[in-house]
Amino acid sequence: MHIEHNSSNRIEKPLGTGLSATHALNATNPWCRSAYGPRGTAQGNRGSATQGGVRRICGRLPFQSSGGNRSIVESMTCHTRGRNPLELDGSRDSGISLPSHKDRFMSLQRLSSAAAIVAAASSAFATITPGELFGDSYIVKEGAGYSARFYSVLDVYIKGNNAADIISSTFGVSAYTSAFTMNQGDAFVQSNGSTNDAWKPECGQPAWDSFLTTGCRDQCAAANLLQLQLDSNWASGNGSSILPGPNGGCGWYPAIGASTSTNPYCRIGYYNAETGSINTAKTDRTIAGNGIVAGQNLNNHWMIGRFTIEVTGLEDTAVKTMSLKFAIAGKQNGTTTFTGSTSAAGRFNYTLAFAVPAPGAVALAGLAGLIGRRRR
Q1: N or C: which end of the chain has fewer CB atoms below 10 A?
Q2: Strand order from edge to edge, sheet including 211-215
Q3: Considering the domain boundaries, does residue 40 fall inside one?
Q4: Residue 316: pLDDT band by 50, 70, 90 thresholds?
């Protein structure tokens, strides 16, 4: 799925430079998958059954569409007053015209075919959660006393349900323009300058430094392996409250591609075996809408970037939010190719909130500095 983009001279790099779809997404990148299977549930309705993750309720086959919206496929008319149409005995439904054995067989064939179609559609778009993002936001303090600085860090994740899910790139196209915007106008902060290249991961940066990634949560490891590339649609210069990029919006991708044999970070479930801080949420509070609570594991969470603002002196009642709109490409379950260029299953448009310092945190830091000076 190497897609050459449109008239904006913009190239989507879902698989990395020079790699075929089969090679790049299958063989080289383990950090692109996620860890539990498609969700098929049986409801306790009379005459209902679950088969292959598809719930059959007396003539209806519900399934999750590629756009994440509930859709109903009408397959048969229920003639059984709530009983399973495949279990008719002809003895108690007086007044009802019962199907012949041949008709029942044909109905069963139609039902099986419809179920197979629905199951295929569902499995193609059921593992990566479309539209919804997850944010782990926490405060990082640098320095001590009155000179201490406070930063609010927001690690942004896509979540999947299958450890084999693969994600290869983050991008925007003319049909679905990407945008990464601080809603209150706060500027993103970085320790290594304010050029576009400052968004690439580097070693030796502080814990609050903003950077982009494709699955890897450690900035130095990402710098050493991913060879992250900014696509050609970035505007020159940044350091403001938005990531620049006209004509479809900016995006990024790993130059090593998204084949699990060379890039383990493309698998959503890469970190699932980890038990330490690398796979544990850093937030110390529950922030409405962020979808992550203190201390939870981050199994099947695929990181797209760390976005940081300075909050030194900020009131604890302040609200700071970021809106993110972008598309991704990859493989559901590690097998079924998809792209947000054309499918809602690969598109996200969501707002996440930043943590703010706890009440009195800045005052306490100042008091500690004052006490230290008096002792000297």
Answers
A1: C
A2: 134-142, 149-159, 301-310, 211-215
A3: no
A4: confident
| Cα distances (angstroms) measured from residue 67 to each of 135, 324, 342 | 22, 18, 11
Domain end position, chosen among 64, 98, 125: 125
294 domain residue, yes or no: yes
57 and 179 together in one domain: no
Residues 154 and 237 in one domain: yes
Each residue's pLDDT tens digit, 24-46: 444 444 444 444 433 333 344 33
> pLDDT (tens digit, 9 = 90+) per residue, 177-189?
999 999 999 999 9
The position carrying tokens 């949560």 is 217
- Whole domain around residue 53: which residue ranges? 48-125
Tokens read off for 233: 């649609």
> Comparing C-alpha atoms, which of 181, 121, 168, 164 is closest to residue 344?
121
Q: Of the candidates 125, 156, 183, which is a domain's last residue?
A: 125
CB atoms < 10 A from the CB of 100, how many?
8
Torsion angle of C-alpha atoms 158, 160, 163, 166, degrees rounded to 10: -60
- Whether 64 and 174 map to the same domain: the answer is no
The per-residue pLDDT of the chain, averaged, comes to 73
358 and 299 share one domain: yes
Question: Distance (Å, rounded) from C-alpha 269 to C-alpha 348?
Answer: 20
Distance CA 108, CA 115 (A): 10
**Structural domains of the chain, count:** 2
Place 2 in a pLDDT band, splitting at 50, 70 and 90: very low
Long-range CB contacts (within 8 A, 24+) of 84-90: 84/47, 84/49, 84/58, 85/47, 85/58, 85/59, 86/111
Calpha distance 89→104 (Å, rounded): 11
Please say whether the beta carbons of 151 and 257 come within 8 A. no
Two tokens, residue 374:
């008096």
In the chain, beta strands by DSSP E: 48-51, 54-57, 60-64, 70-74, 134-142, 149-159, 166-171, 179-182, 211-215, 228-230, 252-254, 301-310, 321-332, 336-339, 347-353
Q: Which residues contact 275 (CB under 8 A, 6 or more apart)?
A: none
* CB distance 182 to 188 below 8 Å: yes
Euclidean distance between CA atoms 157 and 128, whole angstroms:
11
Structural domain includes residue 17: no
